[in-house]
Design goal:
By secondary structure, the chain is α+β, with helices and mostly antiparallel strands. The protein has one domain (3-193): Muramoyl-pentapeptide Carboxypeptidase, domain 2 (2-Layer Sandwich). The protein has helices spanning 38-52, 54-79, 84-94, 134-139, 150-168, and strands at residues 3-4, 17-19, 26-28, 31-33, 104-111, 116-122, 172-179, 186-193. Strands 1-5-6-8-7 form a 5-stranded antiparallel beta sheet. Strands 2-3-4 form a 3-stranded antiparallel beta sheet, with no helix packed on it.
Length: 194
């Protein structure tokens, strides 16, 4: 497996980001996009969990993550020339604060021939409670001692494996194997073929 070094200057400007004058539209690579508070996503996930239960919500969000990761990868593969490890480097930069602010990729160790490997991310938008307002805390059986919405991590697992499925054209699955603490905000995912 090759360790991918993440360059700080992969995305030098925000030419991928467009706003339409006198419109509510924001586009990224020509696709309609939204900006959402991380707490809004967590509220959505917790609401799904409260309606259908934690195990079912984990499955729904994992599947939604796979489909979202695949669709996102298709758009980026169409927009960028890079493939293979070069694509992974650029993908990593796109999803951190120089791009859309989802997480910072610490390292990617994935064998693109087999699809097997690990991805470690830092400061993902799902790892701690962000701005769940008091009114939602009352509505959503949200324990203040919870560091984050664990169900949300299943979305990220699916998202990462969806991207890798699209890049490698392989049947893959992803499990979160390690997650951080309040002092050390990270997640590590194991990818393997099935």
């Amino acid at each position: 497996m090759e360790l991918i070094r993440i360059e700080n200057n992969i995305i030098r400007n925000n030419n991928f980001f467009e706003r339409e004058e006198d419109s509510a539209s924001i586009n990224i690579f020509g696709q309609r996009a939204i900006i959402m508070f991380a707490g809004t996503f967590q509220t959505l996930a917790k609401s799904i969990e409260n309606v259908i239960g934690q195990r079912q919500a984990e499955g729904v969000l994992y599947d939604a993550g796979i489909n979202s990761g695949r669709c996102s990868a298709k758009i980026l593969l169409k927009s960028w020339e890079e493939r293979g490890n070069d694509f992974l480097q650029k993908w990593a930069k796109f999803y951190e604060s120089s791009g859309v602010g989802w997480f910072k990729v610490k390292n990617i160790e994935v064998d693109l021939d087999t699809g097997e490997g690990t991805v470690r991310i830092e400061n993902p938008f799902v790892i701690k409670k962000y701005g769940i307002s008091a009114c939602f805390q009352d509505l959503l059986e949200y324990n203040d001692k919870e560091l984050f919405c664990k169900t949300c991590c299943h979305f990220l697992s699916g998202f990462i494996v969806g991207m890798l499925k699209e890049l490698t054209n392989k049947k893959l699955e992803c499990d979160e194997i390690v997650y951080g603490t309040e002092e050390d905000l990270f997640c590590e995912f194991k990818i393997k073929p099935y």
